[in-house]
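Model: You mentioned two targets. I'll fold them one after the other.
Researcher: Yes, keep them separate.
Model: Target one:
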Amino acid sequence: MVAKEDDLTPAHLGWLVSSRTANQQAALKLFTLFEKYPKQMKSAQFSSKAELMVAACFSLWRAAFLADKTGARHAVINDAKTFLGKMLTDNAITYPQDRSAREWTFNYYMNNAMNCLVHLGQEWGEVEAVLSAEQKVTKGTTKPSRRWDRHQEAFNIALGCLEDALKKTQGIASTPKASRKQRTQVESDEGDRA
């Protein structure tokens, strides 16, 4: 693999630190939801959403490290071929291979994040709206950092939607208990009258 120049400009390094911070804060919030709502997260209603959220979060985290790429089509194809060659030769891929083939791997992680967010957007229209707006603005061409920012924004919105949906389950869960208690009280009162 050909060694690539790292973007060591203050502008890119500043973006890199702030983007990783934003993603790590979102990851912590997601982790907290796993802790706060363990039964709900394992339920049929939320387990696939939880998996998609973790996949999107990880993909965005990794992609942030790879965003200093040119986006030139020939560079993407060269890195794709080189990446595949390393996979076949070494039978292993780690971060250094991701980094050295970032013209292709950035796209791989971003596409994975996008696919997860599209699935989540089918239920949460706010997520879909951000993704649609991005497609209209960029029409397929945009700076990698801008692309990442918009996907992280969509992820943050999905995180808020997930939290809201989980909170609603607490309200729903307490309502049937109250109703059951009220029904029991009513049945008891009716029995006393008979």
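Model: Target two:
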Amino acid sequence: MTDEEIIALQDRVGTKPDGFWGPKSKAACVSYLRSHAPELSPWPSAKDSRLREFYGEPWDNDPITYVDAPEWMRLYNDESTVQFIACHEKVADSLLRCLHNAYMYAPDVVSRYYGCHVDRPMRGGNKPSLHAYGAAIDLDALTNRNKQAWPISATMPLDVMVEFAKEGWLPAGALWGRDAMHFQATRW
């Protein structure tokens, strides 16, 4: 983002608009997003033993459902139409609401699908990724890569994060400061 965009973002989240994105700006942004989230999260914590109780075993395809993808959704790398999204049945309705609502703010970002249910471990580890449960989605991976700092170089719009936060989804870019493409249905 440009200095002007960061200043506007800081002003929006209620911190000193000085163009420097540091710990105070990050804390204000997290607080701003939490203010949009449900008081009681519908999702378990990613670090909670209840994660498996709630979603079942990772890599188990029984609770995976295939929902029709919105007609505007395209694969991020070749622009071919996405026919369906494979996700956990418990997140399906919420995920579609997030996508439709976020699309109103950033259609060029939200339409670039990068994946939801993927049987893989977390990067750099052997614990299952939230993607292995079908409870995470990645969007616009080309401009919001895992190790890109948000909002300095990654460009995931705050409005997209707000729409996911409204459904209780964790928007990784704002909370982790990186991996802005990633949203997961877990408590913050």
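Researcher: Noted. Anything on target two?
Model: The longest strand covers residues 64-68.
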